[in-house]
Amino acid sequence: MREMKKAEERRNxxxxxxxxxxxxxxxxxxSTSNILEKVGIARGTLYYHFKSKEDIMDALIERYTNTMxxxxxxxxxxxSIAVNERILRVVMALNMQNxxxxxxxxxxxxxxxxxxxxxxxxxVVINQVPPILAAIIREGIEQGMYHTPYPYECMEMIIAYTNxxxxxxxxxxxxxxxxxxxxxxxxxxxRMLGVETGxxxxxxxxxxxxxxxxxx
Length: 216
Hints:
This protein is an all-alpha fold. Helix content is about 65%, strand content about 0%. It has helices at about 5-25, 30-40, 45-50, 55-75, 85-95, 100-110, 115-140, 150-160, 175-195. The protein is elongated.
């Protein structure tokens, strides 16, 4: 007798299987038949939960986004971590490409036909990330590290900038132009937070090789 599973459990099984396959074979290289075989279900069961392979990817992105926000919030409230280190860890936790299969997801999101999904992810980031970072900045203000009367507004401006200018779909630039913007961005963040020039250069780690003086 075929095992009957709760809808949410079955849905997660499909997502887990697709996640592993997308990471291994790529989104385009994975067929719905591959997913069916890995989970061991009938095609009708898959289509009961998801309309298409694209729908599965959308659900995976939503799941990753929720997971990353949860990780970021957990780091943000961990007062055993120094303020500067906490900010860096929060930002790194929000980088989808650090997750297994994350690069494949980002490529999917940036396809022209997925513009609405891309916009939805940007809305989540711009609306939910500034409050997380602003809480840490307020701690830094209390400790005398930062000097700004606008902690939330500063974080909102920073997130809005990074989520547009450093998004390949929004602003077209060469690797050299991008690399030049990184220290300029850090310089202006230092001005906004009222700290000494050069004191936030550690944040260049967020940009990977480009932030270390190289280009991809």
